[in-house]
User: Which sequence fits this backbone?
């Protein structure tokens, strides 16, 4: 009987030792997977802000007298960024006025909060290069270029006009009755979202100057497809009132 009892105790002890070895390894593997997923997420968001900034600066480069500084590049990336840029360096970004080439180079240092045993930050480098939207080199007699939204009824002289450069914010549906726009007004359900019969979620999307909340961030009421066109082709289209106050 003593031998059997001893054998049972010995087997229980071996299982405890195996679990004590395997469990930390399993937990560390989960943490590292979370680390990699967060790094990919941050990298993707950083690239998105660089891409949007490059398009914005390329339009500005259409002005022959425009000289885009490294500070302009940094400010443009920061304006489009959806993540803090404290650990992102754009020091090697530049603009060559001779051929209108915009180079945006970023170095992102990622440190995951709470993982103290990872001593070295993950360093990620990304690069975007684009040419200014200056048209064909042989084009002549080009008029003033302005911005027009696909479904717009007015033209804009500033690409960052709040009517076409819309900043969308996410709000909990349970808090929408308390939310207010920049004029202090309430938000009401978007007619287009309701007509489509979209499934209602616990999150909705609003803009600072809007009066409606949307069930999709891609709703056509808040999404803008903007084109750069020659003002002379617009006929009698009126100028945006907000752009007029800035000119």
Assistant:
């Amino acid at each position: 009987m003593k031998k059997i009892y001893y054998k049972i105790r010995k087997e229980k002890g071996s299982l405890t030792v195996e679990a004590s070895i395997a469990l930390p390894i399993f937990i560390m593997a989960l943490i590292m997977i979370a680390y990699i997923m967060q790094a990919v997420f941050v990298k993707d968001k950083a690239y998105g802000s660089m891409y949007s900034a490059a398009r914005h600066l390329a339009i500005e480069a259409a002005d022959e007298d425009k000289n885009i500084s490294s500070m302009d590049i940094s400010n443009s990336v920061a304006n489009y960024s959806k993540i803090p840029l404290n650990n992102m360096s754009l020091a090697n970004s530049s603009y060559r006025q001779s051929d209108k080439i915009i180079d945006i180079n970023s170095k992102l240092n990622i440190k995951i909060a709470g993982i103290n045993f990872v001593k070295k930050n993950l360093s990620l480098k990304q690069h975007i290069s684009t040419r200014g939207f200056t048209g064909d080199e042989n084009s002549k007699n080009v008029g003033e270029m302005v911005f027009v939204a696909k479904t717009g009824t007015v033209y804009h002289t500033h690409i960052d006009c709040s009517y076409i450069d819309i900043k969308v914010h996410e709000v909990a549906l349970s808090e929408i009755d308390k939310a207010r726009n920049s004029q202090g007004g309430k938000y009401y359900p978007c007619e287009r979202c309701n007509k489509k019969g979209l499934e209602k979620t616990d999150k909705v999307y609003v803009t600072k100057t809007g009066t409606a909340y949307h069930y999709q961030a891609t709703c056509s009421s808040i999404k803008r497809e903007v084109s750069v066109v020659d003002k002379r082709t617009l006929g009698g289209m009126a100028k945006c009132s907000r752009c007029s106050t800035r000119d």
About this structure: DSSP finds four helices and twelve strands in the chain. The helical segments are 2-60, 70-80, 191-195, 241-246. Residues 38 and 155 are 40 Å apart (CA to CA).
